[in-house]
Amino acid sequence: MVTSNYIRLTADQQSRQGAIWNNVPIRYRNWEVQIQFRISGHGKDLFGDGMAFWYTKDILKPGPVFGNMDYFHGLGVFIDTYANQNGAHNHGHPYISSMINNGTLHYDHDRDGTHTEVAGCEAKVRGLEHDTWILIRYERNSLLVMTDLEGRGEWKECFRVNGIHLPTGYHLGASAATGQLSDNHDVIAIRTFELDYDPSMDAAGSDPSKIVPSAEIFAPPRDHRDDPPPPMSSLKLFLIFVCALIGIAVCVVVGFLVFQKQQETSRKRFY
């Protein structure tokens, strides 16, 4: 859905996918992308699934990874808003993570992608009233992801990873998906910058466009930790209180009727 203020990748409806891609590949050796986005919806405790930002070889190929294809070539940065909890992880959600893929790795939703991520951080990105931004910088074989989630115009580091190798000539994109749960996933603005580049850092005669996407390190396996339960709303507390009062009243009435019945039976036996 395209409006004058944003592009809505998915509406707050189940089983939706959406994506936008640039047609012109990025020829910069070092680059930075700043993305203004918004995740919102009617769900209070349950919502999902999330959205992703891409620097990949292939475009316009819908699939199971937040609306994009699996076994991709390049970089994916994921904002996962729902914890599947079927595998090892020790973080809460929403959660920002990154993955480098040379076309051979599978993104495992049941494990929230923790076995193929290079780094990640928790980030409360959903349902905020002010602007939310994410910055993705690739410079000198280093990947930096930062966020501005407090509406102060200040970047906060999410993670930084060295030993990341990406080619030139890939495409930028954003995608989102919903399943049994849903949310609005909106892209408001995308800004792309070319950063300074020193050709002497590359091997003589090398072609940056021929680099195979790779990461020298991956995040280590982690123990499972349940997400903290969502805070109970005042409406839920009120309903619980009312149900408790009704339950107590029913018990008192039933107890009184039983007692009265026993008294009547005792008097009949006496006469």
Report a brief summary of the structure.
The chain is an alpha+beta fold and 271 residues long.
Summarize the topology.
Layout: E1 7-10, E2 17-21, E3 31-40, E4 50-56, E5 73-80, E6 95-102, E7 119-122, E8 132-139, E9 142-148, E10 156-162, E11 164-165, E12 171-177, E13 184-194, E14 214-215, H1 234-270
Antiparallel strand pairs: 1-13, 2-12, 3-8, 3-13, 4-5, 4-12, 5-6, 6-7, 8-9, 9-10, 11-14
Mean pLDDT: 87
SSE run: EEEEEEEEEEEEEEH
User: Can you identify the CATH class of the largest domain?
Assistant: Mainly Beta
Strand content: 25-35%
Integer tally of domains? 2
Derived from helix and strand composition plus strand pairing, the structural class reads alpha+beta
Number of helices: 1
List the quaternary state of the chains.
Answer: single chain
Query: In which order are the strands of the major sheet placed?
Result: 1-13-3-8-9-10
Tell me the number of strands.
Answer: 14
Which value, in Å, is the CA radius of gyration?
Answer: 26 Å
Helix content: 10-25%
End-to-end distance, in Å?
84 Å
CATH names the topology of the largest domain as: Jelly Rolls
* Sheet with the most strands, sense and barrel status: 6 strands, antiparallel
Overall geometry comes to: elongated
CATH architecture of the largest domain: Sandwich
Unreliable spans are: none
